[in-house]
Amino acid sequence: MTKFAAPGESGSVVTFEPRYDHFIGGEYVAPAKGAYFENPTPVTGKTFTEIARGTADDVDRAVAAANGAAPAWGRTSPAERSGVLLKIAERMEANLEKLAVAESWDNGKGVRETLAADIPLAIDHFRYFAGAIRSQEGGISQIDEDTVAYHFHEPLGVVGQIIPWNFPLLMATWKLAPALAAGNCVVLKPAEQTPASIHVLIELIADLLPAGVLNVVNGFGVEAGKPLAQHPGIRKVAFTGETTTGRLIMQYASENIIPVTLELGGKSPNIFFADVASAKDAFYDKAQEGFAMFALNQGEVCTCPSRALVQSSIYSQFVGDAVERVGAIKQGHPLDTDTMIGAQASNDQFEKILSYIDIGKQEGAKVLTGGEKADLGGELSGGYYIQPTVFEGDNKMRIFQEEIFGPVVSVAKFDDYDDAIKTANDTLYGLGAGVWSRDGNTAFRAGRDIEAGRVWTNCYHAYPAHAAFGGYKQSGIGRENHKMMLDHYQQTKNLLVSYSPNAQGFF
Amino acid sequence: MPANRVDVTDDAAALLRTLAADHGPLMFHQSGGCCDGSAPMCYPAGEFRTGGSDVHLGDLEVAGVPQPVPVWMSAAQFEYWKHTHLTIDVVPGRGSGFSLEAPEGVRFLIRSRLLSDEELAELA
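YS: structure for the whole thing
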């Protein structure tokens, strides 16, 4: 076990500045209106830095800086941009612990996860897009003997990116890596709940990017996010969040006739077919862990497997074992590497989860374990901790239909394959799903029948680059995490060329 | 009192008075999905374009707010929520989305209870 020193304590691997401004045009600049807001750590609830409170003036300045940098950056060679991305990855790798602890402190999540998942995945993501842009091909279509259509990829120009608070650095990377690889300049707004860790990253990589290629404007959604989404100087908006803001962003984008990519969450089913329990072997253990994955990142994952569907013939045994497994989840100080579940990211998130636990109880769902807030004592008493919670109920209940975004799973049983698929698809969303079976045919058919963009089959919560991630139904538009995301950050230029010396014959 | 689908706490009403003074007429649209999903989003009236895919849950009459504050939800989401009564409350928090109250250091929050059979019959 290792416990990292908290930022601000002696021996900490990361030191936050007392204040962060906006990063615009390659330098830190104060907000036009001069206002800042306090940023607490969810670990203790205490403020550890303050952040520039951006407004439309700051967004204007950032978009102007990005537009100034865009022509030159857009003309760099893929090799050059790839090289920059590789250097970013290298810099991050050399500062893995620093970034991991910064992320834990800003978000509340366990450093166990940031060390093993968030930051290594982000590093690999930059490397993936460094490779993808080098290997991207244009197209040549032979129209007839003398006519050829050439298809070139061109950057869009300046793009706006609005980042969520659940994986602040990884989600920023999912958006930054393809955008920069494709030759775009970026104006990025971090979430106001977790605005600090991105600046630790910027300090590490600022010298690797030409001024104006990457700009960060901090602030609240309504004051900084909205003017960014509405700005006539951007050519695309990427957003991860929820449905109402997603619709509003589409509405703003319609005013400028620009594309959007949206990742708006889900209510992911995790289906356990009876044969999972045919032996108490390594695979059974893996499936049990798959059930407990709802607690990863305190449940603050768009693909949280928050609806577990278990076949009735194994229900009692499987769920009994799973509840025991969940009971063994270690909750504690997020900077302790033994801690498996840390703090919820903010007070309002904490309150929201408790309000869902309340309606779940009112609707008659049975609490199998957890169901309360957790007071971990000492300095952690001021933080936002919730016990991992397992509800047993019915798919029509609201706790089965809304993304609680907390460490809460709702369990129901199903009788047969058709019943499982019907319940799995009885949701507004279609982002992720899990299927567990020893029978390859069952697993394959279920994977194809579930209306979701990502179906983990005999695994869960793996996010490797090169596997497309995005939603069906109300879960959004676009596919991140894969080279196809480059298309979402590129224009297509078609040169239609005639090699015939002869007139076309019309006039 | 006739049955309704949506109500507001005293604290949330006080916040609506402040917001109405600063921003004029207001509206709510109930969100779904991840991150700040399930949060009621408060906008200047007309900022969010509602349409055929939305349901009007009711209007909040708040003393000191000149115009009623309509509350909307997508019709698909309403199908899963229609058996519950919603109360808009407010808690300290960081907020997100483009909701108006976030810079005040507070966040609107939905509290829910089951509608009684009598209420459901009246609202049907």
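YS: worth flagging: Chain B has one domain: 6-123.
IM: good catch. Also Strands of chain B lie at 6-8, 26-30, 40-44, 54-60, 69-74, 84-92, 106-114.
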